[in-house]
Amino acid sequence: MASHKSALKRVRQTHKRAALNRAHRARLRHQIRKLRLALAAKDSAQAQSLLAPTISLIDHMMRKRILHPNTAARYKSRLTLRVNAVAKA
């Protein structure tokens, strides 16, 4: 265990940031899950309405370094392709 004040502070900060990151990641996963459920149900209207907030949240998490930029781009690309495919069908 850390013994000086600065090391104890770093431990507190690390725990606090890890908890925030965990909450952000969970929020992102829930949003993506909602969109994927709408796609699985072939609900074009709901999928279209969920796409913009989901992409916005993915971008936000990328800026916060929760997601790697390439991972964010991959998610956005694949989700958009799936929403477009459901809209055509």
Quick recap of the structure?
It contains 3 helices and no strands. By secondary structure, the protein is mainly alpha-helical. The chain has a single domain, classed as Up-down Bundle (Methane Monooxygenase Hydroxylase, Chain G, domain 1), CATH 1.20.58.
List keywords for this structure.
mainly alpha, Methane Monooxygenase Hydroxylase, Chain G, domain 1, 3 helices
Structure description:
The protein has 89 residues and is mainly alpha-helical. The protein has one domain: Ribosomal protein S20 (Methane Monooxygenase Hydroxylase, Chain G, domain 1, Up-down Bundle). It contains 3 helices and no strands. It has helices at residues 5-40, 44-63, 69-88. The protein starts with a helix and ends with a helix. 15% of the residues are buried. The model has no long low-confidence stretch (mean pLDDT 96).
